[in-house]
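Morning F.,

Quick status update on the modeling queue. The single chain you submitted on Monday has been processed. Sequence for confirmation:
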Amino acid sequence: MTTAIVTDSTTSLPEGVRERPDLRIVPLTFSFSPEETYTDKVDLSNEEFYEKLKISSVFPTTAQPSAGQFVEAYESLHAYDDVLVLTLSSKVSGTHSSAVTAAEMVNRPVEVLDTKSAEMGSGLILLEALRVLDEGGSLEEIRRATVEAIQRCSILFAVGTLEYLEKSGRIGRAQRLLGTALDIRPVLRMEDGEVGPHKRARGRRRQLAAILEEVKPVAGAGRPLAYGHTNAPELLADLEDSLNVEGRFVAEIGGVVGSHVGPGAYGVAYL
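Structure tokens below.
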């Protein structure tokens, strides 16, 4: 039995993974107007997107893939016996629902898992699935390892403002941090698939320290981690230097997730 994997464009991919013949990426889109729609991580470079986001008077909207796009991905993998699908958290997008609907439309085994994560978190989960696949694991073995990775995965990230999460409606339990005092810099985390508050910090350095306090023991224990940022390479470099641990990859987060967290965010995911 051979297994292929499908995921969506909000999963960050280490170099070389996208080219695998047993992997398909189904893209989300973002729009600044009905006449101006872009495919995530394809139509605009990250630099172009964040520059546009900063100067645009229009807040971008994002859209999940259609079920038909997932059907096309499943059917393109006809050479494989099974398909395992890993999607963006169902609590922040309808992408999971599209993938499930598509699975019911094809006459082949397709199993859909909600990563309850995004970007570098989903990327780490995907790498666990690929590891077991490459070791010759069965679909059940790959699924079991993936579910365990989903349960272990954590994301901590710093933002300069909650404005973008509030406007996009993805602020989740971090809503209670709105309206805080000047120069309060929140540290957020993904909790059970949605954004939640981790800690309030005053100023950039204390914000970084709040992340380090949580992640240093994890990094010291050798657990897998990955970094990510939204047009904030200098801030991310401070985090990497302070941890002094090389991640499995660095995610330059694209337009769909970037629309929700805004420019200047950075963070780390770990299993």
